[in-house]
Design brief:
The protein is an all-alpha fold. It has a domain of 162 residues. It has 17 helices and no strands. Helix 14 runs antiparallel to helix 15. The longest helix is centred in the last third of the chain and has 40 residues. It is globular, with a radius of gyration of 27 Å.
Length: 507
């Protein structure tokens, strides 16, 4: 099986890096002109993921203000949508493009410029949606929904064109998950606006139907399809082992079941029994990913924070799907009318929002960032080992404590003070991920500076101009070129090979 490299620069990137290291030709004045540098892959990825982290921080601040009282009347809608649409949506926009490039071995349509445009458009659209719904300004909400949908559909077009040019047919089909997920994002955004629109006009029954469709389309469709498709490749990569041979085929065959199951659950606001059927179909599609993942985990147990966090996240996700299917499906046994069933279905979805948002979406994002951040930052094997250790500090404690506190927050039988305390504690523990990313960036920068200083002191070839600025006490003797002695016959002896600089362990 061909190994899949996650986050490594391609050959073009290596040629560009070597070209940047070559000195530019001298100008007429005899001075060297510094070549124009393009943004590095590291700085680009840090900038993009900083936007993701910023949305998560905004969601955290809003959650504190809602729980604390100043924004209590706004409810949990605002922080949840800042997290899901802003943070998770931005992360999927970035990393779906990255994994599509990896799977298809072809540059995406529009390249980095189009990806950045999509990312910023998604962020702007999200901000307009949040402002429009909160302030009850329909024009802002409509504009935001249209921008989010347009950015998503542009991503679909880019992936479809990229797929048609793919040169890796074995894994190429996995990229279709991203095109389907982005399509469901556009649909889910439209359903979200229809939910708010019908509610503002006093049509409660219609609002309940749209709410169930919107929430399940976004959580099971957009987020769930993306995560399950990505884990097929990312899971064995995080475990540093081979992919199960049947995994790509099973995942591809499971995609129609995921879409069908999402559609059935989304329609359960109209007919409650569809939720149970949809949950069964969806879980059958998920097994195409879960079964090979379990086989891989039996060979290489998940012990790092990234793998343990991903395991916990998928477990919460499966629990959420089962709760939706059974909770809404049992409503059909009550014999109530369609309006009452739709309202009850909305309450069932409302009860699992935090479970799916925090337990599943946020936790899978934390695990992915913990693994991908060292890969993204690079710096060589030695630096990567250090940044991995930073992201993995107290891994077992963080995973166990965060999930235990989340379970306390979800138990409705407990007093609200205990539940709030559990939620706050879980959030505080999860906050180490952005802190660890910052510490990793600092570590990479410090090591890069030390490496640069070392290269300036140890001067290969003994260039007189460069040697003048170097300290003789720190310069190796071997790095200075000595004059060749003359033989008795006046001829120069054969020159020895000039000393070569030792490669750093980070290269």
């Amino acid at each position: 099986m061909m190994p899949v490299s996650i986050g490594r620069p391609d050959e073009t990137g290596r040629r560009e890096e070597r070209a940047r290291r070559r000195p530019a030709s001298a100008t007429a004045a005899g001075l060297q002109r510094r070549p124009d540098r393009k943004p590095s892959r590291r700085s680009t990825q840090v900038r993009r993921n900083s936007l993701v982290v910023a949305w998560i921080m905004v969601a955290a601040v809003l959650a504190v203000l809602v729980i604390g009282g100043p924004l209590g009347s706004w409810g949990t809608w605002l922080p949840l949508h800042a997290l899901m649409l802003g943070g998770i949506g931005s992360a999927i926009t970035v990393w779906s493009a990255h994994f599509a490039d990896t799977l298809l071995h072809r540059p995406a349509l529009g390249g980095a410029a189009l990806l950045d445009a999509r990312l910023y458009a998604h962020g702007a659209g999200t901000a307009l949606v949040l402002a429009g719904i909160t302030a009850n300004v329909s024009a802002l909400a409509v504009a935001g929904v249209m921008i989010v949908a347009l950015a998503a559909l542009t991503g679909v077009l880019a992936i479809v064109v990229q797929y048609r040019r793919a040169v890796a047919p074995r894994l190429a089909a996995l990229a279709i998950h991203y095109a389907v997920a982005l399509t469901l994002l556009a649909l889910g955004a439209a359903l979200g606006y229809l939910t708010s629109w019908s509610e503002s006009r006093g049509r409660a029954h219609l609002s309940d139907i749209f709410y169930v469709a919107h929430t399940t389309t976004m959580l099971l469709g957009f987020v769930g399809t993306t995560v399950l498709g990505t884990l097929t490749v990312l899971w064995p990569t995080m475990l540093r082992t081979k992919m199960e041979p049947e995994a790509p085929r099973w995942t591809t065959r499971g995609l129609p079941l995921l879409v069908t199951g999402t559609a059935l659950v989304a329609a359960s606001g109209l007919l409650a029994p569809l939720a149970a059927l949809g949950a069964v179909v969806y879980l059958a599609g998920a097994c195409g990913v879960i079964v090979p993942a379990v086989k891989t985990a039996r060979r290489v147990p998940p012990t790092s924070f990234a793998t343990a966090s991903a395991t916990a996240a998928v477990t919460w996700f499966l629990i959420g799907v089962v709760r939706i299917g059974t909770g809404i499906g049992f409503l059909a046994l009550g014999g109530t009318g369609p309006a009452d069933q739709a309202a009850a279905a909305r309450e069932v979805i409302h009860g699992v929002r935090v479970l799916l948002a925090a337990g599943f979406a946020l936790q899978i994002l934390a695990g992915a960032l913990s693994y991908l951040s060292p890969v993204m930052l690079g710096g060589g094997p030695a630096t990567t080992r250090v940044t991995n250790a930073v992201m993995d500090r107290a891994a077992a404690y963080r995973v166990v404590a965060a999930n235990a506190c989340l379970a306390l927050a979800l138990l409705t039988v407990l007093p609200w003070e205990v539940r709030v305390s559990g939620a706050v504690t879980a959030g505080a523990i999860a906050a180490y991920v952005p802190i660890g990313m910052g510490l990793s960036v600092r570590e990479v920068v410090v090591r890069a500076r030390e490496k640069k200083r070392g290269a300036a002191v140890t001067i290969p070839g003994g260039s007189p101009a460069a040697a003048r600025g170097a300290s003789s006490s720190r310069m190796p003797v071997s790095s200075v070129r000595q004059p060749h002695p003359r033989a008795e016959n006046g001829r120069r002896p054969a020159a020895s090979q000039p000393p070569q600089p030792q490669e750093s362990a980070d290269e």
